[in-house]
Amino acid sequence: MQNAGPVAIVGAGIAGLTAALCLAGQGFETEIFEQADALKEVGAGLQLSPNASRILIELGLLPALESVWSEPDSIALVDGHSLRSLASVPIGARARNRWAAPYGVLHRASLQKILFDAVIAEPRCRVHLGCRIESEPEAAINRSMMRRPQVIVGADGIWSQTRVSIPGAGAVRFSGNIAWRMMLPGAEATACLSVDRVTAFLGPNAHLVAYPIKEIGGFNLVAIVGGEAADSVWIGKDSEDRRRELAAAFDGWHPKLRELLTRATAATYWPLCTVDDGAWHDGARTILIGDAAHAMTPFAAQGAAMAIEDARELAQCLAEAQDIPSAFAGYDRARRSRIDRVRKRAAFNRFAYHARGPVRLGRDLVLALKGPEALAADLDWLYGYGAAASSQIVADLRMKTCRNSKCYSDLSASD
């Protein structure tokens, strides 16, 4: 857009900070409003699949990411009762070749700090901490900025106040699943965990994901079980009663996994909520991205990735469109089908991961018949998204990968 005015962003999480950097790269000035006095990311570990890490590489953040993340060699699916291997998807160096970007795991706080440091160093970005935007966000932002922003971006998460101002926006809904997020010191880990892989242990009505976090020298554990929201839809407190519920959900699982859950520390209990399909913008000035627009269950590990993709797409649409309504419409067209497909993948994973009885046996048979390369090919649409638009970065990354590790040239034809 010609003579583009400033953009106001509500929320300094992964969505908001990435949006600020992407918009700055397109020449927009941005002002970010964050209610916290200091940035303290809630949560623990985070998986950054290639469709997300590629965008962060475009922003020049690969060296900072490589200093804190790990790149596991595989994603393993394992039976939670017997510890029998069910399937494996190659990542590591193969992800860099097949999907033209790394698959990294790290602490959420580390990613947020990397993004925040980049925003602070960007002259086009300004951050307002301790600035709560609640009712009538447009009026509150106008007062804080002392000028009228051209666009307001709601990146304020699942409990978005910006969403309230969007007619027809989706409602928050409890998904019927509970997530326990925990950390396990490396000294407490057993042989069923490996620093070289992301492991998903599967069982009826529950699954447990574990992967290494280099910053703490241990593992991130995420246990997802079916349950009720209880007395609140958003609870972060651990308790003896909650711990008993967790133990009951994994009754009958392999003793080594049950022991890991008792040794884990820094446990938080989060009923998982989603945002129903609905309007993402008002057609004139305000638009939602990330969880504020379309929070989804974590069964495909794509929540942060979708926010990062949203940020890049919105910046591109605003830069290329003639006016704001056209930009918003273009963004909606570009993201709606993508988000819908990822939601469906997450729903399928939930069905498969928590399967029981004959369905579970059928799942195991299908996984046994599919080799690692076939399973990787099933993810090309997800992890390879956007690779064609990043040709020079992809070429540079592949050259670096081939210098630093074995170059899997046999996979290049499937990119």
Automatic annotation (TrEMBL):
<keyword id="KW-0274">FAD</keyword>
<keyword id="KW-0560">Oxidoreductase</keyword>
<dbReference type="Pfam" id="PF01494">
    <property type="entry name" value="FAD_binding_3"/>
</dbReference>
<feature type="domain" description="FAD-binding">
    <location>
        <begin position="6"/>
        <end position="342"/>
    </location>
</feature>
<protein>
    <submittedName>
        <fullName>FAD-dependent monooxygenase</fullName>
    </submittedName>
</protein>
<dbReference type="InterPro" id="IPR036188">
    <property type="entry name" value="FAD/NAD-bd_sf"/>
</dbReference>
<dbReference type="GO" id="GO:0004497">
    <property type="term" value="F:monooxygenase activity"/>
</dbReference>
<dbReference type="InterPro" id="IPR002938">
    <property type="entry name" value="FAD-bd"/>
</dbReference>
<dbReference type="InterPro" id="IPR050493">
    <property type="entry name" value="FAD-dep_Monooxygenase_BioMet"/>
</dbReference>
<keyword id="KW-0503">Monooxygenase</keyword>
<keyword id="KW-0285">Flavoprotein</keyword>
